């Protein structure tokens, strides 16, 4: 089978909707400078690391704090805006028409939202929610209302939170009804609020998992962390957290067992580099997916573009994807021989 046909088959086989939901419940540092890291913001750091490792196309990350994304051309209900505006040098505002297929529709969930992550082995389409710290309960309720299938199935939701009741640098994953929850749950109001929302959607406590990031009792949750501590968490904790989050997407019991018994600590540095970068990738952008589906179906990508323009656009997408896959294969071979 040619590479082009393989790419087209994979794109056409993408799941229509995500099956797993990750919720990073952490401070968005509204009390400090934008680039400040606190212990309470570590779950958001894990979420952003997932996006970075998966290499999600920027237009498909719906972040209300980033006004430069094309998703800003959609209104609060998620519908495409008919017109947007720009200032003209020599006169009144000009009206610019935008294509409705540039980004997938989305609702305002009160935080960062992306539903095009592919995690685990085999790959499972997953969604990530990073709510504003003061709106965690309302944000998850909006997601539950707009994506009810995401919050009703068993082990379909993973909450990520930091706690000062675990030793620094320690990771622990267990369901809400687990043995340590009696100690950990009261330490985090945001997790309790999210559990209340999920409970209203008839999701039992033993079906909701939490990935806890230990910060130690000596580290105030809302105080800025020093540069050395930030580097240590980003180098040693965040990669492991993203790896086991990805493993959880396809096999929650295996992820919990392997993380909690500490087997991963026995991996060598080379094994960590190879293993921790696996099981995480992204669907192609909404725009590229639309182009390839139109190309495969023999229709024009837009009323403004004819069939030849669609073939040309699809050719560029396929050429880029073939190059990226060839580079990825070379990288995997290099890692295997390291």
General description of the model:
The protein is α/β, with parallel strands linked by helices. It contains ten helices and nine strands. Helix 2 (42-54) crosses helix 6 (227-250), helix 3 packs parallel to helix 5 (189-200) and helix 9 (286-297) crosses helix 10. The chain is globular.
What distinguishing features does this structure have?
alpha/beta, 39% helix, globular, 9 strands, Rossmann fold, 338 residues, 7-stranded mixed sheet, two-stranded antiparallel ribbon
Brief sketch in words of this structure:
The protein is an alpha/beta fold. Helix content is 39%, strand content 15%.
Compile the SSE list and pairings.
Elements: H1 3-12, E1 20-24, H2 42-54, E2 84-86, E3 94-96, E4 111-119, E5 124-131, H3 136-146, E6 157-163, E7 171-175, H4 181-184, H5 189-200, E8 208-214, H6 227-250, H7 252-260, H8 269-275, E9 280-282, H9 286-297, H10 307-336
Average pLDDT for all residues: 82
- For the record, give the distance between the C-alpha atoms at the N and C termini, rounded to a whole number: 30 Å
Report the structural category.
alpha/beta
Determine the number of helices (DSSP H or I, runs of at least 4 residues): 10
Q: CATH superfamily name? A: Peptidyl-tRNA hydrolase
> H/E element string?
HEHEEEEHEEHHEHHHEHH
Strand content: 5-15%
Percent of residues in helical segments?
25-40%
Largest sheet: 7 strands, mixed
Task: Choose one word for the global shape.
Answer: globular
Q: Structurally, how many domains make up the residues?
A: 1
